[in-house]
Amino acid sequence: MENPADPRLFIDHFSEITDPRIHRRRKHDLIDILFSAICAVLCGAEDCVAMADFARGRLAWLRQFVPMRGGAPSHDTFSRVFALLNPGPLHECFIKWTQTIQSITHGEVIALDGKTVRHSFDTATNKSAIHMVSAWGALNGLVLGQVKVDSKSNEITAIPQLIKMLDITGCTVTIDAMGTQKQIAGQIREQQADYVLAVKDNQPTLFADVTAFFERLHKDRFLDGEAEPIFHTRHTTRDAEHGRIETRMAIASDVLDQIPSASQWSGLQSVVQLTSERTVSGKTSLETRYYITSLPADAKSILSAVRSHWRVENSLHWVLDVTFDEDQSRNRLGHGPENLSTLRHIALNLCKTNTTRKASVNRKRNMAAWEPDFLTELLTNQKV
């Protein structure tokens, strides 16, 4: 595999993007702007003004990698370019680059989940905040791709677009209830992957069938009408930390002849009931969730996949909000919000793939801002 963060790979991949500006008005090459912006975000920049400040302060350093013949771009240049730049090719280059620096492991859990960039709305133009659906690789914590949800649509239409962009062969795709759709399940199977889909009342027939099935199982003590055991597996985990005790029990069964709607879901092999009991400060709460999956009825592996999906909230969304301050981003011009979201994902992946120093993403960004040599390490994944 190529050097995971070699800047030449970045430059080669992203040089393919067409510059949206009129040729005679270009003072700065597009790759100079993109590369400067990525490095600025790695060093803590959160808007185009900070990107321009970074480019001026690190101009000599940047010229180690890109020509920067036009000098440091102004904040207006950064803002104008990202507003005009078509997000589609940028997303495609991001996905290809990510696939180059990190191979997806057979059996890896890929969590698909949506997030709203809350301050990207613009009341003056009646523009709502953008909502992005990301694919997150649980094994290495990398963002594998993302698409923007159309303002007149929802995640149901965005998820198939994202899945189509990715090579998910041999992986397990997990999606919340919004993405539990027959066509999405079918597409995942067509792309030779498995799925674990949450079941709620947005699929009323399926939800009623699955909940009724498990109610009968518990009532009949997992025996059929002839007192023969109904096949199922169980797995329980228990976590106790920070004054909280949480016990999770998964029950999986492949007895689908008792679920009338099962045949409508491509590749469906098992149904799952997951019960979580949480005790905090002496108060206990109980929550029951249901899932359908194309995996065999192995409660342990299915529970592991579900828990991997839950990690996307802390390992991706929380990091983007707290470390990259994404929710406070006020870039609202044109395609700017979507393109800057992609830049943050690229920066996050560079931090995750870096192995030269052990530190959190936040610490790595701070060190990159303070130490030019460490910024080079983030880009090359080699000790300077």
What are the low-pLDDT stretches, counting only 5+ consecutive residues below 50? 1-5
> Whole-number radius of gyration?
23 Å
Number of domains: 2
What's the number of extended β-strand segments? 9
Q: Mean pLDDT, as a whole number? A: 88
The secondary-structure element order is: HHHHHHEEEHEHEHEEEEHHHH
Structural class: alpha+beta
Shape field? elongated
Largest sheet: 9 strands, mixed
**What percentage of amino acids are in beta strands?**
15-25%
Give the termini separation.
21 Å
Secondary structure tally, helices: 13
Secondary structure: helix percent: 40-55%
Q: How are the strands of the largest sheet arranged?
A: 3-2-1-4-5-9-8-7-6
Give the helix/strand layout.
Elements (H helix, E strand, L loop, with lengths): L6 H8 L15 H13 L5 H10 L1 H4 L12 H10 L2 H15 L7 E8 L14 E7 L4 E7 L6 H11 L6 E4 L6 H9 L3 E6 L4 H16 L13 E9 L2 E10 L16 E11 L2 E11 L5 H24 L13 H18 L7 H10 L1 H9 L4
Describe the structure.
The protein is of the alpha+beta class and 384 residues long. The chain has two domains: 7-101 and 330-380, no CATH class; 168-319, no CATH class. Helix content is 41%, strand content 19%. The chain contains 13 helices and nine strands. It has a nine-stranded mixed beta sheet, sandwiched between helices. β8 (270-280) and β9 form a beta hairpin. The longest helix has 24 residues, at 299-322. It is elongated. 42% of the residues are buried.
